[in-house]
Automatic annotation (TrEMBL), chain A:
Belongs to the ThiG family. Its main location: cytoplasm. It is found in: Cytoplasm. The lineage of its organism: Bacteria, Pseudomonadati, Pseudomonadota, Gammaproteobacteria, Oceanospirillales. Keywords: Cytoplasm, Schiff base, Thiamine biosynthesis, Transferase. It comes from Thalassolituus maritimus. The gene is thiG. This is Thiazole synthase. Catalyzes the rearrangement of 1-deoxy-D-xylulose 5-phosphate (DXP) to produce the thiazole phosphate moiety of thiamine. Sulfur is provided by the thiocarboxylate moiety of the carrier protein ThiS. In vitro, sulfur can be provided by H(2)S. PANTHER family: THIAZOLE SYNTHASE. GO terms for biological process: thiamine diphosphate biosynthetic process. Its EC number is 2.8.1.10.
UniProtKB/TrEMBL annotation, chain B:
Pfam families: ThiS. This is Thiamine biosynthesis protein ThiS. InterPro entries: Beta-grasp_dom_sf, Mopterin_synth/thiamin_S_b, Thi_S, ThiS/MoaD-like. It comes from Thalassolituus maritimus. PANTHER family: SULFUR CARRIER PROTEIN THIS. It comes from the Bacteria.
Amino acid sequence: MADSDVFTIAREEISSRLWLGSSMYPSPDIMVSAFASAQPGFVTMSLRRQTAGDLANNDYHERVNQWLGASQSRLLPNTAGCQSAKEAIQLAILARELFKTSWIKLEVIGDEYSLQPNVFELVSAARELSAQGFYVLPYCTDDLVVCESLLHAGCPAVMPWGAPIGTGKGIINPYQLRTLRARLPDTTIIVDAGIGRPSQAMQAMEMGADGVLLNTAVAKAANPVTMAGAFAAAVDAGRAAFHAGFMTERDMASPSTPVAGLPFWHTAMREGQHHD
Amino acid sequence: MIEIIVNGKSMAWTSEKNVYTLIIDTLNYPAESSRFVVALNGELLPAEQWPSTRVNNGDIIDVLGAITGG
């Protein structure tokens, strides 16, 4: 991508449009190698109850910290698992203290089966956390009115799902993502969740998404490191294509090669022959 | 008798403790560590307040550290 395509959120420069989760990798070494391959703009983590023994053996946290210190990636804590605005606000405040960052991926789950966000609680939590100085990046549905409400609540970006978390189904409602892009032309849109293949990430970027956030598709690949690189290339290509501007789709065929000057112009047709 | 819940499990003792003593001396979390945070009854309790905060009967304390996440 061109150097001029600087990516900023809340006036902070973000080094990449591909963001990665830190969960489910086969080992800490493979996780860090995948990060090195993808060079993600953000790496997500979470927080849970831990014993003293748990803390002493927390290799993943140690390795993520080392990666953050040696790269341009930023840390994005999440509030995964919260089911109310109150829970999410409490966990976000704890995350800010633990991770020393005001960025928060705000998750408030409303349905355990689909992991669909509870958008009412989400907007409520976003409003409160924004007032407390957080940079709230909300995991939300692709509903236009919900996204508008989140922006009014103070979020510097919205993160609509492509498909339910962990499904790998891609952009299951491309119409809605196109609508969001068209109706919110100046809003930073990160497609979060449901991306399973690099082609799906590229599709999101071609449609004008500003970035994608994914985890399972890389961590659960047979070779996470190679897949991380494939996603990075796809995101870059999709972004470049969006900027380049697409041809207009048409129903009738149109030859790419000029027909003028062809020496046997329609000879076969004049002789009554047919082409298959 | 003071009965509290730490990370979802009941604990009980007879003498008075503050949060620092509970976390560092009783539960053996590392002192001066930035790798965990403490919530008292659901609210963040900053480390500098641990020594001056008495553990009261019925308190719910959570000690949280980083985990991987998506």
